[in-house]
Request: fold
Amino acid sequence: MARTVRVGNKFVGEGNPTFVVAEIGINHNGNLEIAERLIDAAIAAGADAVKFQKRTPDLAVPESHRNLMRETPWGLMTYLEYRHRIELGLDAFQEVNRYCEKGGVTWFASVWDEPSVGFMEIFDPVCYKIPSAALTDHSLLRRIRETGRPVILSTGMSTIEQIRDAVGVLGIDDLILLHCTSTYPAKPEELNLRAIQTLQQMFDCPIGYSGHEVGLQTTCAAVVLGAATVERHITLDRAMWGTDQAASVEPHGFKRLVRDIRVIEAAMGDGVKRVYDSELPIQHKLRRI
Reply:
């Protein structure tokens, strides 16, 4: 049986409701007002938590990409300049922290480098998320484990061997693994949702799903397959500028997603075949023998 991990005031794992994370990520485009509108949308949808991303651009951006030119809403700039432009700083995250506390919603972040761990420690986070891109960065994994906080690890673009190695570094305690396909948006035929069950069989920890596909039905299918947590990007408008917007869910869609997940949970039952009291009048009416 998979273990249970506490994230804030919620328990994730066997027998608990699906922990739904609205990933704001970088869909705020460096704009605090947009970030707050996304937090509001996640709360209105019934998400259990919102998630941001934190990078140190000078470390997280590969040397080969730093000077590549990019058209942005703020004009033509290098990729490194763009990454700095959309990165929220201390003052902005202090406001995010205040806004989430006011709204009563849990928040945390994906951290992409070791200095970002130190940065996030200021906010006493309920957990850390390790993005798929950092799964093989064992130094970062060890730094995160030093904090003693629960860890959520995405497994996109990773082999089973790489996942085993990462779990070996992190240990299984207070660990949640997320099955993931790291394309934006991901094709349905490449989601491989049955890998959720593969990971369940291999690792004694809660297994969830991080989705980047278009639509909601496949994420609901992940819940049927036993995903203990689901994470989807949230956006105000999929047509907005930004690399993750097209693989995101708009507010009305996110609300439907949470609603459908809760209906699925209620419908799954306990697997014990029984005759319900509501069936007895129909039984009496229709069954002759």
Observations:
- The chain has eleven helices and twelve strands.
- The domain at 5-286 is CATH 3.20.20.70 (TIM Barrel).
- The mean pLDDT is 96.
